[in-house]
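From the pipeline queue, job 12 of 40. The input is one protein chain; the requested action is below.

Action: predict structure.
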Amino acid sequence: MNEFTIRPAHRKRRAGKTWKNTQNAYADDCYQYKTFLNALDLDEPDVVLDDIKEFGACFTEGISIKTRRKFQPATAYRRFGTALRYHRYRIFKGLPSSVSLPELISHGGFREGSLRADPNSPYNELPSDADAADKIHPFLDESWKAVLDWLGPEAGDISKCSRRDRLASETSLITGMRIDEICSLTEQQIRNLARHVEPARPSKLIPLWITKTKGLKPGYVFLPSFLVKQLLEYIDGERQAAIDRAYAVRVNFEPTPILFVNDVKSTYAAAGNPLSPDTLSRAFSDACLSIGFSHEIDCYVLDKLGAPLLSPSGKNIIEKRLVSDHTFHDLRHTFAMLTYIDSAASGGQEPWKLVSARLRHSSILTTLRSYLRWLDRAEQEISNALMKTYRMIDNIGHGE
């Protein structure tokens, strides 16, 4: 199994793609699968296809200890697919197998809300996932402004409150960058843009080439002049204060090249370290919860071993939990829809191609599969709301 987890990771590494998450995912799936086999007292050579299907079924009705909710269909597809591929790998290595190669070969699989499977595929027995369009949640009104105001003061505010989280969120909203990409930006990347800043033209777009992206697919993002100016002010002000504190409280501190860092309020051990995507994501979700942009979900009550607790009547005990209506990634969704609406309103012939390019998708089909179906549902109402949002975002650069 260890060798199996290395193989796909090594293949991605040779292709210049990200591989650590791939290997971690395979290792986790194999751990789950081995635990399943041990529970049934099954040896790997004795496994038949029905056993692998039963493993997949564990995640169609099972409960995640982490979320205390039922597993997402995508989790079932991934772990079931890993078990199939692992047994194919065993056969490739010449190890004994009770399941045949034809049984394991399938054109099935879950891809962005769609099930691609032949009639005889074992994937057909797994439930279908939500449509990709159902996972798009852009901000359609002024609610994004309330979230940003909670995260930090506007540009030009003379208060001593941190602007880091707000500035990082504005960067995503204005450029469409993912949270990992924002947390990978370096101080030097922004300093290199300083000579292109034109105060008289705050909306002038300045291209920035980024390489630390999803799938390591490099591309340009476009930062308006006013945003670069605000990032430079963060570097020389708030960021420098955090670095100075780190020098004062930590022995042998070595400053990071990363743009966004833990602020002066962080612990001495964390002071000046790079801002993590998890920290930024939590700050954004907490802001939504704090201002009431939330909804209730049902969660199972589990015991110390992770088993669901039952009521005297034998039913699962359920409790309510508040979750945020939006995630940080919804800023990227908003950017995508704003780009489309603006291009279409300006007479652009192929606005979706522009959206796909700005999002740096590998294929325009990825863009259409998600955003086009979402937009078709209520285009006129959405267009009006987004254009109002677009005008409000433009005012960020003018301090209005």
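Job complete. The mean pLDDT is 84.
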